[in-house]
Specification:
The protein has 282 residues and is α+β, with helices and mostly antiparallel strands. The protein folds into two domains: 189 residues, no CATH class; 87 residues, Alpha-Beta Plaits (2-Layer Sandwich), CATH 3.30.70. Helices cover 63% and strands 11% of the residues. The chain has a four-stranded antiparallel sheet with strand order 2-3-1-4, covered by helices on one side. The chain is elongated, with a radius of gyration of 24 Å. The chain starts with a helix and ends with a helix.
């Protein structure tokens, strides 16, 4: 337990550093206010020259206290640590780094990717750097709007402010950065090894099952189903396979039953025997 906590704080530290690098090297120098408290702090910085890290800290503290009062002390030390670490790294880096590019597209792409990696690491470490996720939770509490919609509203307001105080182009690039960041967070949290979930409905499910188990070395689960149109009993097989095994599985099914009904979809995360250890994902 202690080792895990230490690793989580190390992860939060590394993630916060990467977000601060994205902010100070790519986003702030190019006036890209990509949503969140950091985006709002960027707008304020260009209007007042007030340090971005301190601004984020000042804005986050009352939001944190309100969140803790309403939703209990579950936010705890890790949230405080994330807020302070991110703010500190930002103000330490900003005077000592230079922008790597003045191309707005490159800055929005690389800033978004780097921020997404950092946030993904922070989230995987069960932490947060404060900001709009807390605002979205408060919006949800007071209005019933979902957290996802709350995030969209909070980030949207910051992007609009960027458009007003900077220019429309800066706001458009900020929206690009937000999208890239969100996609990168998903990749970091879910990993690149996306599996495929397969459902097979066939009158020859036993033969197909044996082939999957023996040739692909994959487990299966059997369900009993009923055709909604015909009312006939149906056998349904479910299996999880890798992307490289999709063509082999389709070949197996086609050889045995050309009339089989097959559904193949992405399984973003698979936990259990033969895959990730569930203890590592809790």
């Amino acid at each position: 337990m202690v080792k895990r906590k230490i690793l989580e704080y190390i992860g939060m530290t590394v993630g916060s550093f990467l977000i601060a690098v994205a902010l100070t090297v790519f986003l702030v120098p190019n006036r890209i206010a990509a949503g969140g408290i950091s985006g709002l702090a960027t707008v304020i910085y260009y209007l007042t020259s007030f340090p971005i890290g301190i601004t984020m800290l000042v804005i986050n503290i009352p939001i944190f206290l309100a969140s803790m009062k309403i939703m209990g002390t579950g936010f705890g030390m890790k949230t405080i640590y994330g807020i302070i670490t991110f703010s500190l790294f930002t103000d330490l880096l900003q005077p000592n780094v230079v922008a790597l590019t003045d191309d707005l597209l490159l800055a929005s792409i690389y800033g978004g990717v780097l921020a997404g990696i950092g946030l993904g690491i922070v989230f995987r470490s069960r932490g947060t750097t404060g900001g709009t996720d807390m605002i979205a939770t408060l919006i949800n509490y007071f209005t019933g709007i979902t957290v996802g919609e709350g995030l969209l509203i909070a980030d949207g307001i910051v992007v609009i402010l960027a458009g007003i105080f900077f220019n429309l182009e800066a706001a458009l690039y900020a929206a690009v950065t937000i999208f890239i960041t969100s996609q990168t967070i998903d990749v970091v949290q879910e990993g690149l090894h996306i599996k495929k979930a397969v459902l097979i409905i066939s009158d020859h499910s036993e033969e197909i099952n044996k082939k999957i188990v023996n040739e692909l070395n994959r487990g299966t689960t059997k369900f009993k189903g009923e055709g909604g149109f015909t009312g006939r009993d149906k056998s349904v097989l479910m299996s999880i396979i890798s992307r490289s095994e999709v063509s082999s599985l389709k070949k197996i099914v086609a050889e045995i039953d050309k009339e089989a009904f097959v559904v193949i979809s992405n399984a973003n995360e698979v936990i259990g025997e033969g895959f990730a250890d569930i203890a590592e994902k809790i």
